[in-house]
Model the fold of this input.
Amino acid sequence: MKESTVIIQGITNPLALYYAEKMKKTGTNLVAGIAPGEEIAAVAGIPIFDLVEDVVLKIGKIDTSLIFVPPYQVLDAGLEAIASGIKQIIIITPQIPPLDMVRLKQKAAATNTVIIGPGSSGIIIPEKLCLGILDQEFYAPGNVGIISTTDYLSYEISLALKKAELGESIVVSLGKDDITGSSWQYWLQYLQEDENTKIIVMTAPLNVIYEENLAEYITNSLSKPVIAYFLGLQAPLEKNFKDAATIIANQLSYSVPSDSRYHLLLDTFKQAKIPLAKNPSEISDLVLKIMKS
Amino acid sequence: MSFIVLKKIINYEQNFAITKKMDLLEYQAKKLFNQVGIPVLPSQPIHDPRELKGLQIPYPVVLKSQVSVGGRGRAGGIRFVENTIDAIAAARTIFNLPILNQYPEVILAEARYNPVEEFFLAIVLDYQLQKPVLLGSITGGIDVEKLLANLQKVVIEDEFSPFYARRLVTKMGLKGKLIQSVSEIVEKMYYLFLRKDLDLIEINPLGVNSQGELMALDGKISINNHALPRHGDILSLIALDKVKTTEDTVINELGKKINWLDSFNQKGNIALISNNLNLALINWDLISQAKGKIAGCSIIWQEYQGRALPNTDSINELELALNYLKEMPGIEVILINLITDAKTIELMAEKLANYFQLMAQQIAIEKGTDRVERPTGAASRNRRKTNSKSSSITVKQDTELQIVLRLVGEKTEATKALLDQLPFYWTEQLENAINETITLAN
Done:
C-alpha cells in the first residue's frame, strides 16, 4: 500500500497544500498535483500538471486520487480520474450537489472504482500511510479498525483508545454528505478481511446513516467483534427522510419527521447484541473487555 | 474562576429552519413548469389587492395564498371569485390571513378548471437507495390516504429514459392515450429534476378534463441547497433574503459568518463552541445525559474543515463566536471544545489571553457608564426586540459568564503556562470538561 501512487486534484486549495506537505512527510507516495492553467511547475516539491492523463503518461499508473476541488467541480474531477483509470477516489470536498454524486456513482459502479466521500477526511494507517486530512499525531498503531464519517469523531475515539494504550489498524472516513460513494457495508467487509484489524469500531451521527439492515449484516456476515458509537440523539439534527415513499407521505401530510428512525436503528443494534457505546471512553472499556474474553 | 461581562443587547436574526432544501412557492414552481412545457393555467401573481383591477385573466378566477406551509385550503387561503369587487375583498382577507403563522406576500390569481380526474405525480431523490424515484397515484388531490394507498414507484437505476415514465403510468393503471400524454409530463418533470438539482418535484393534482387534456393544477419544487448557488434563474425567481439554510448564519459587523445551530430550548444556558460539528454533538449528548441544558452550538473554522490554517484569518473566528455568544440572552456557560495542532494552539492561547485582558478593561469602563444609560427608552426598546424570541427569557444586565476550555493537541510548556493564566478552567480530558460545565451551569 505504501508504494501506491497518489495524486491530488485541486492542489492549490490551501487545505490541500497544507496536507500535501504533511502526507509527504509521513511517506505517502504523492507523485503529482493537478491545477489546470496555474502555470507552476511544482509546489512543496510536488510536480503540477494540467490534466490527470498527463500524469499517467509521464509517471504511469495512479492508484488513488484525492479530490479537493470546489463542490461544483467534483463531478468533473471524479470523471476525469475515472477516465484515466484511477480505481480509488477520495473526495475531501464536502457538500456536493446530490445528483452530481448519483451520476458519479453510476460511472464508478460501471468501472469498479471505489469512491470515498464526499466530505471524507481520508484513510490513515498509523505510522504507515496517510491519504487525506487525518492528522497522524492523534493516532497510534494497534488492532482497532475505525470506520467513521469524519476526522474529529475518529480523533475523539482514538484519544480514548490511547488512554487505554490501544491503537488503530486503519481509520476510514466515509464522509458526511447524504449521498456518499462506498458504503458502511463495503468498509465493514474490508476490515473483516484486513488481517491487522481485530476489533471494528463504527461511529457516526445518527442522521447520516441511510443504510438499512446494517445490524443484520454485521451479525450474519462478520466474524470480528463490532462496537458502535452513534451520536446526536439529543441534538436538533437535520431530520432527513430516507426513502421516497416516506418523503412523499411526510410531505403530503405536512408532518415533521420524528426521531423514530434513529431509535429504530439503535433498536436493531440492541437486538443484534452489538455493543453500543454511550461515550468515547466506553469504547475503550468495551474493546478491553472483548480482548480479554 | 469566572469573569463578569455586561450583557449588551443586540438584535439577532434567528433562523429556525433546519433543512437542506429550499421550497419554491406554487407560482414559482409553475413558472418552471411553463418553461419546460408542462401545461399550467393562465395566472397572475398579485402583490397588492389593487393590482386585481388590471387582471388579465377572465373571471371566474381562483385566488390562492402563496405560502410554503400546507393546509391553506382548509385555513381559507383559497377563494373563488366572480368579479373585481369580490376579488379585491377576498385578496385583502387572504393577505391578512396567517397560515401556520405565515402571511403570504403574493397571491396567485388563476383561471378555473374543471377536472374530471386528478392524478398525483412526483420525482424525489431517495436517500436510502441513493437514486431518483418516480412516484404516481391515480387518485391524486387532497385525500392523502387514498393517494398513498394507490402510490406506485419506479426506481431510476441508471440513465433516465422515457420507458421509465411509461412503466410508472402503466403501473398507476392508466390506459390508452393517457399513457403517452402523462408519460410526457413525467419526462418534462425529470428534465427539471435533473437540470435544476431538485430534491423533489411534484404535481398534485394533475387535472384531466373531459377532453382528456392535462393541466398541472398545483405543484411543488424543492431545490437542494448545496446546488442552489449554481442556478441563477432560480435565485432570481426567489427573493434571496428568504433562502433558509442548514445552519443559522449570522453576519456580524465585520462581515464574518457565525455558524449557530440552535437547540430551540429556551431554558438552555450552555453554549458550545467547537471546530467540528461531531465534536460538538458528542458534548451535546453527554451534557444532555447529565441533565444539562444546551442553548446551541457554534462551529468555527468551517472553511477549512475545522482547521485554522496558517495565513488565513480563521483564527479570529473563536473571538467572533465568543463575542456573539456572550451577548446572547440566557447563556451562562460556554464550553469551548477544540482538537487542533500545536501551532494553532499556541496562536490561540495568545489570542485568548489578549481577548480576556481586553474584556476586563472594557468591563471596568462600561461599569462606570452603565448607570447613566440604563433608564433611556432606547435601551428598553432594544431589550424587547431581543426578547421577541422568547418572553420567558429575562436579560440580565450583569451576568456571570463562565467558560470551560477543552483543548486537545500538542502544547509547549510556554503555551501551557499561558493557558494556566486564563481566567477560567481548561483541560484536555473530555469527561473533566463535561463535569465542569455541568457544575457551573447548575
In short: Chain A has ten helices and 13 strands. Residues 122-292 of chain A form a domain with the Rossmann fold fold (CATH 3.40.50.261).
